[in-house]
Amino acid sequence: MWGKFAKQLLKSKVLRCSVSEKVQRSSHFPSECFLQSIRCQHQAGVLLEELAAPSVAMIQNVEALSVDRFLRVHWEDGNQSLYPFVWLRDNCQCPECFLHSAKARKLPIENLDVDTGIGDVKLTNSKKVSITWPDAHHSEFHAHWLKKRCFSKRSRTEMQEELFLPEHLYWGSNLDIPTMSYDDILNNDQSAYNWLCALKKVGIVLLEGAPIKQGELVNLGKRIGYMRLTFYGYTWQVQDKVDANNVAYTAGKLSLHTDYPAIQYPPGVQFLHCLKQAKTGGESVVVDGFHVCQRLREQNPEAFRILTSTQIDFTDTGVDYCDFALQSKHSIIELDPNGSLLRINFNNATRDSVLNITAEQVQPFYSSLKEFVSLMNQPENTFCYKMKPGQVVTFDNWRILHGRRSYQSGTDISRHLEGSYLDWDVVLSRMRNLKKKLQPDN
């Protein structure tokens, strides 16, 4: 079910926007939105197939607006697009200006005339725009290429959605966790693509049927690209250890947190492979941090402002893969330049006693953080599950806060998870390449 869900959501931008709006506006849990979106897609199967077919962009005519230095394209669908002369010259696709094998620009910016005009412009077969520049250089642009790069707000938004998949489906305690076959992920491109799409949209996916052996995560990492090396190694063993160098390596309760805010660029995706599970305790707890952030923004805008604007120190010191003495600064809730949620940086164990704010700012900060954590721990926001040997949970470490209930430990290892990290750059790269392979026409 989740495979079809992810595949169909990405086929239709119209439907994706519809589902996203319903979820974003909901102040409760989106399990109803999950079901509603799935039902909607089932009922609109024909529409989805029609939307999946790419339309061919055709141009009616073009004109150069020399005073404003714009090329105006009149499309056969009645719309118009403006393209600045300087942008067209900068993005000339000829072999002299562009290395197609690397999809990289060869034209140096120092050789670009930012005030360039146009010598001549022609339209060929409604599909190509041919430009001769004042220095007699020739450029040719395909209609489809231009259409995708239109500077209208709608087109720019669609392109950003296609490149980065920014939509999220928020959830709470009634999450129906997406579950997929580990073997299918490794051996089937469509399954791998569906997995990564669900991971990006929902934030967490459970894989079942992985071999119960240490080191298996290396194969899953290679399926995407490469794993991230940290001071704990490429993989690390979550089990009760003597003289533990991390609170996760104990049998006690782990409060909700994101991993590794003590480094300047925390890993984006985390894998945890269950090799052995405790008979008593050891349940995993997860929270959709972005959903909680939205609730905090609505309920206490001042607390949200403080947690997005106050830089907090994190630290981590010890020896593992090698010795380390880490120090970083992050806001607890990090926003992108557009004010959208980007990342949560919170690990109470590694939050430093160093606090680089005035004494008067300390109390408001603690009050804001306490309210944020209280919201996280509300029963309606938490989802609890107990992993079984052979299961691999994959989740967005920038969005999902995770924790663990305490468990009984003895002389033998009673619970053993193996973990690893990947960066979102690597994951999104594989997703785009899989999409290109599976949907070449798009």
TrEMBL record:
User: PANTHER family under this entry?
Assistant: GAMMA-BUTYROBETAINE DIOXYGENASE, GAMMA-BUTYROBETAINE HYDROXYLASE-RELATED
**UniProt xrefs under InterPro entries:** AlphaKG_dependent_hydroxylases, GBBH-like, GBBH-like_N, GBBH-like_N_sf, TauD-like_sf, TauD/TfdA-like
Q: What is its EC number?
A: 1.14.11.1
Q: What are the names of the required cofactors?
A: L-ascorbate; Fe(2+)
- Give the GO biological process terms: carnitine biosynthetic process
Q: Which UniProt keywords apply?
A: Carnitine biosynthesis, Dioxygenase, Iron, Metal-binding, Oxidoreductase
Job of this protein: Catalyzes the formation of L-carnitine from gamma-butyrobetaine.
Q: Which GO terms describe its cellular component?
A: mitochondrion
What residue stretches are annotated with the Gamma-butyrobetaine hydroxylase-like N-terminal domain?
67-146
Q: Which Pfam families match?
A: GBBH-like_N, TauD
What does the record give under GO molecular function?
gamma-butyrobetaine dioxygenase activity; iron ion binding
What this protein catalyses is: 4-(trimethylamino)butanoate + 2-oxoglutarate + O2 = carnitine + succinate + CO2
Which CDD domains does this UniProt record tie to the protein?
CAS_like (cd00250)
Report domain TauD/TfdA-like positions: 179-421
UniProt pathway annotation: Amine and polyamine biosynthesis; carnitine biosynthesis
Mind telling me what this protein is named? gamma-butyrobetaine dioxygenase
The family annotation for this protein states: Belongs to the gamma-BBH/TMLD family.
Entry superkingdom: Eukaryota
